[in-house]
Amino acid sequence: MADGPQTDVSRPSALPTAKLLQRPTQPLVDQSSNEYLDGIEEEWNKKVDVEIETLVDGMADIVSLASIEDKDKFRIAQEAFQAQCRAESMIRAAHSLMSTIHSMKLLLLLSDETQIAKRRDAELRQVQAEKNDAQKKAAALLDELL
Predict the structure, then answer these.
(1) Which domain holds residue 110?
(2) 25-55 residues labelled b (16+ CB within 10 A) or e (exposed)
(3) Distance between CA atoms of 70 and 137, rounded to whole angstroms?
(4) Is the pTM of this model over 0.90?
(5) Which residue has the higher pLDDT, 85 or 113?
């Protein structure tokens, strides 16, 4: 049995008998981990953009509905209903954004801390090396002046 390329990315898939979420039968193993993660990041960015656009459009519509002019009772009731519908869609968008934020917090908390620690340590070593070089240059310049 030929296995696809090994990656560190979790690739969840639906059970073969599941009917709720249709996924491709062949996993996308031709992508590298970085490409897969970039795709997921792009999906999250699009979802956040859509929800924020819903909030902005809803607020603009509610403000436009709040105009003061000569209105009859039917028009007032109609605009009240439109404002209520917009507010409900804005609430759904806000809840979706909160859910996305919660998911991101969990991903950060449950992520691979060893990789983060390695990157932090490598950056610390680089900064310390730069600091030592700068101190040596400063000492050499000070010696030249004195």
Answers:
(1) 35-145
(2) eeeeeebeeeebeeeeeeeeeeeeeebeebb
(3) 77
(4) no
(5) 85
